[in-house]
Design a protein that fits this description.
about 775 residues
């Protein structure tokens, strides 16, 4: 039955749409109130389940609230599959994220139109997407970290905002509904998530864990928020008065609907032990403001009502919120999205955008000059490793189905054609000792060594997949945990890496993981290192294009790559002390914000509030230190920019400003770079130990081209968060640093370039 069969509900909205009247929240809320007012108590309670049944007598079709769209429409057949979210984070590109989310909404609408016409209103067929995941990737051991945009609250907030705006659109109706998850303090351990209590100080809450959610609610107007499994400071997140009533609906004035994580409410009485019965758990969640239950605990709502634990008004309020969303989506009306046809799924434009996302996500971590590879100078190339021809390593988790997959091996084979002989060896199992069970031991090492000996260069593809790092219960990992015990590659892959390196041929290592790994050995012994994340269903083609110079890598790390876990606090410790680039006091292997290109891009100068600061010594200079530790870009002769004598700019307190950065590409390859701006509050004891990211912008440069890009800096960048969780301006002196990475010693060591700093004084 299609939605036109439910015409009695949608008449007014169709008239409004024909007249060009927006379906605003007040209109949707009024219509929801009127419709819900015609329902019985039992019917209203039934609508709070994620699989809401039809109410035939009122013309209400069934609706399943559960859909996923993290990096493409998931679990409902064929869809355009973008790189996993962490790769999208590495792109540092809000425009890209917004466009990708619009593609997801378009394909979601195409599927909804086609499926509902056939009467299919099953799970994963609706328009309420439980994405994006804006949790902070505070610890690299967390298995679900690759669902996030990384470790920085500002970057996460900006990319999350862009995703929500792209998904929900700006039409007369909402194109699709986004969901900010998992609210609010949630990042492992996966094995303990159903009973774990995440303890966070007020400072950490308001400085790290809450800002992205606040931005999505207040600026992007995200339509829904999902609670986390764990407790936060003693309260179950899906039944937290503090998080839901006081902060979300109170301080932030959130007007959308709240959804539980799946079967999280059941945990109240079975794992957290804060209630005794299912009825009490259902009542706790509903009273706190949880409107729809992903799970089955709301089956007990009527019993909770009979026991006096909730009122009919509680049920009515939740139902009205849910139908407000359905009206905003135009699910009872004729909308501008009804004509989006099935041909939009995996169409040419969408696939091209996915290729762009892959190209922007790949991070070049080291390059002694071997990249880009010159096909004309190669006779043979060896492609080795368990992820070289792996489809699983392309897609990450929460994925849909692609009509075609292109692995790294296939991408390289297609790129070189008949001109270069491509040898291939799996090298080893992804994590087991051997590929064939009846073999005596490591059974692909000798093949890999033979391939290396017969190759001019070896492309070694290592890493993980969603079975080794993912959500609790994911297949391939031990049940109850998708987390990593450490940052090491599986032993089978470490053995393979050492054997291939020992042959003596140049090795280009491609690491396909969703998280930071211990890449010390690769950094010391490989000619180049690329972090490819989970690059999307057809990502192998783009990676090959990067290897052979058709595209310059331009991704930047959205997480810190530590040297090992011994540098990190305990996994269960939610204090930010010692975590992420803002609080880490050691020397990382690769810093947050770091990534090389195939060009030699120099920051010529910056302009801030009318003050111009020029780079007076942009020439290259010989760098000291080992070649292995420089990781200099191909085409560059080494060299360092010199930080200018600090300029001082006085501005009124509360002023938003911008930095205009002028860059020139002195290399021979067209490149993209990411201008990054960091700020440090010099006077405040509450400032983060390291300067924090406060602005970024992509810039494209042809060989020899000079461009200026404007990077806006919000006035909130000048605030700090004190121990009471209060955000305030504390002090008058700030340092604003602009460059292509952090203004830290390790970034300078790896790139040979420093940021340009400006001193800001608030008056």
């Amino acid at each position: 039955m299609n939605k036109k069969a439910y015409s009695t509900i949608g008449l007014e909205a169709r008239r409004n749409a024909q007249m060009g009247t927006d379906m605003d929240r007040k209109t949707a809320r009024d219509r929801a109130k009127e419709l819900v007012g015609k329902m019985t108590l039992e019917e209203k309670a039934e609508q709070l389940k994620y699989g809401a049944p039809a109410i035939e007598r009122l013309g209400v079709p069934a609706y399943n609230w559960w859909n996923e769209g993290l990096h493409g429409v998931a679990r409902a057949g064929v869809a355009t599959m973008f790189p996993q979210a962490i790769g999208m984070g590495a792109a540092f590109d809000t425009e890209l994220i917004e466009k990708a989310a619009d593609v997801i909404a378009t394909e979601g609408r195409a599927k909804y139109n086609a499926y509902s016409e056939e009467g299919d209103r099953d799970i994963y067929k609706g328009l309420t997407f439980w994405s994006p995941n804006v949790n902070i990737f505070r610890d690299p051991r967390w298995g679900r970290g690759h669902e996030t945009y990384g470790e920085d609250p500002y970057l996460t907030g900006e990319l999350g905002r862009a995703f929500v705006e792209g998904l929900q659109g700006d039409g007369e109706y909402m194109k699709a509904a986004a969901c900010a998850k998992h609210y609010a303090v949630h990042s492992g351990p996966e094995a303990l998530r159903h009973q774990f209590n995440a303890t966070a100080t007020k400072k950490d809450m308001w400085e790290t864990y809450l800002p992205a959610f606040e931005k999505l609610v207040k600026e992007a107007k995200v339509e829904s928020v999902m609670g986390a499994y764990n407790r936060t400071n003693g309260e179950p997140c899906c039944g937290s008065t503090t998080l839901i009533k006081d902060i979300l609906r109170g301080q932030w004035e959130f007007e959308g609907h709240f959804v539980s994580d799946c079967w999280a409410i059941r945990d109240f009485h079975t794992k957290h032990m804060v209630t005794d019965t299912a009825e009490e758990s259902a009542a706790m969640a509903l009273k706190a403001g949880c409107d729809v239950n992903c799970g089955n605990t709301y089956l007990h709502l009527l019993k909770a009502y009979e026991q006096g634990l909730i009122t009919e008004e509680d049920i009515t309020q939740a139902a009205e919120r849910l139908f407000t969303t359905r009206f905003l989506l135009g699910l009872f009306d004729d909308t501008e999205y009804d004509k989006i046809g099935y041909e939009k799924i995996e169409c040419k434009e969408h696939l091209q955008l996915a290729d762009r996302a892959t190209a922007e996500s790949v991070v070049l971590l080291k390059n002694t000059g071997i990249l880009p590879l010159d096909k004309s100078g190669l006779k043979t190339i060896g492609v080795v490793g368990p992820n070289a021809d792996s489809r699983a390593a392309l897609i990450g988790n929460y994925h849909g189905t692609s009509s075609r997959y292109i692995t790294v091996l296939e991408g390289i084979q297609d790129a070189v054609g008949e001109d270069v002989r491509v040898y291939y060896s799996e090298g080893c199992h992804l994590f087991k000792e051997k590929v064939e069970n009846l073999s005596a031991g490591p059974d692909r090492i000798s093949e890999a060594v033979a391939v290396a000996k017969h190759s001019d260069v070896v492309v070694l593809c290592v890493g993980l997949d969603e079975g080794l790092e993912g959500e609790e219960g994911d297949s391939g990992n031990s049940y109850a945990s998708g987390d990593k015990a450490d940052l090491l590659l599986p032993e089978s892959q470490r053995r393979l890496l050492e054997a291939v390196v020992k042959v003596g041929k140049p090795v280009v290592l491609i690491n396909m993981t969703g998280s930071a790994m211990d890449l010390k050995y690769a950094h010391e012994h490989c000619a180049a290192v690329l972090q490819a994340w989970y690059p999307g269903a057809r990502g192998g083609r783009v990676i090959a294009d990067i290897l052979f110079g058709g595209i310059s890598p331009s991704g930047k790390l959205p997480v810190t790559f530590y040297r090992d876990t011994e540098e990190l606090p305990d996994f269960e410790d939610y204090s930010m002390k010692g975590r992420t680039y803002r609080y880490f006091t050691g020397t990382p292997l690769y810093p947050f914000g770091y990534g090389l290109t195939y060009g030699d891009v120099v920051l010529e100068g910056v302009e801030c509030c009318g003050k111009n600061v020029k780079n007076q010594n942009p020439g290259n200079q010989d760098m000291s230190g080992s070649q292995n530790d420089m990781a200099q870009p191909a085409g560059a002769a080494g060299g360092s920019q010199t930080v200018m004598e600090d300029a001082v700019v006085e501005i009124p307190s509360g002023t938003a400003l911008s930095v205009n950065a002028t860059a020139v590409n002195r290399g021979t390859n067209a490149v993209d770079e990411v201008v990054q701006v960091y700020i440090k509050a010099e006077d405040s004891v509450h400032a983060t130990p390291a300067p924090k990211l406060c602005g970024f912008a992509r810039i494209s440069l042809k060989p020899g081209e000079t461009k200026t890009v404007r990077v806006p800096i919000d006035k909130d960048a000048f605030t700090v968060v004190n121990d009471e969780g209060q955000r305030l301006v504390d002090g008058a002196h700030f340092t604003v640093s602009t460059g292509f990475g952090q203004p830290d010693a390790r970034t300078k060591e790896l790139t040979g370039k420093e940021s340009i700093s400006v001193k800001i004084v608030l008056v």
